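Name: Kynureninase
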Amino acid sequence: MKYEFSDDLKQAQTLDQEDVLSDIRNHFYIQPNQIYMDGNSLGLASKDAEESLNKMMNVWKTEGINMWDEYFHYGQKLGDECAKLINAEKNEVLITGSTTSNVHQCVTTLYHPTKDRYKILVDDLNFPTDRYAVDSDVRLKGYTPEEAVKVVKSPDGKYIDEDAVIEAMTPDVALILLPTVLYRSAQILDMEKITKAAHERGIFIGWDLCHAIGAIKMDFQKVQPDFAIWCTYKYLSGGPGSIAGLYLNKKHFDKTPGLAGWWGNRDDTQFQLKHQFQHQQDVSGWQIGTPTMLSMAPLEGTLKLINSIGMDKIRTKSLKITAYLMYLIDTKLSKYGCTVGNPREDDKRGGHVCLEHPNGYQISLALKDRGVIPDFREPDVIRLAPIALYTSYQEVYKMVEILEDIMSSKSYEKYSDKRGLVV
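Structure predicted for Kynureninase:
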């Protein structure tokens, strides 16, 4: 989409006045004298999340073990709400585990290597935890990662070449795991195109939605992947370390879960406590242990809020406000060597902007001392995420003004380039 922007504060104020989501900001705990641009790492706390957490506490206080009468299927209930964000069927989505444990669950369920088809195809830019899990899973099958993990190399260290991925789908590939949105460069991969190519070759394919869910629109009824996994603490603001999400296509419900646990047993025999596992014939059969209710509860509030707005409105604002930020980087910061390191096309860009500069780490520290919260990714990327639910255009404008002062004064030079624990 074409946008008409200007580099003055007055337009930022006008954009906020025209923003149909401006009132949603009041649902979140915005800290005074702080501009929060790290919602793609940890979303801000909302009053809706607080309310649903307090509700769960009260249920525990008053009901004790009787709370299970109402909350036994809580993971499925939240999964139903999450399914709306990706247009999947209700019984295909579950809130359970962590991103990494869900990778293990899906891979061990679908990866059954043979002499001729034994490789897992990955890229070299995805978040490392996915690769750690895949490497671990092939070892469990008696292979080394060097033998069984096929890596599609990025041509430039920033983007994945979709055609190269498809070309790598050789007859020895059994399964594929890829990111929908790259965490470093915000590139969106064409899930439909790549999934179709995989299925035409008889290959199972799964997607990591960690930087996609709640940020971009997805249609799993159309794409029909085999599985997907994601965290819920970024754009979904479920809270630090909140319970993750798992999608399993219903065509796989007859398969035995790779990692069995008692919470995945059939409802009608679970409390018979037999030693023979009988998994529930829907996505809930892929649960392992007892759900952690207090960690799941905040997500209920934020999912209700997000679904009351709808992904159409969220994505529309996200595209506009990230375009505005890119415009300001071009007009105000490019003369200092700052560049935009993410795709500019609306259909190729996720929910964050990548500001690149050789001194990016030091600049990020200078920003934090000025009340701006970004995050940094190697080697030179400052990730800035103006979240549609709670970031204003005036905050974006003010942040760029602060950046302009940091760059013109070179105040970032006083900061060490030695990396901290959380970069």
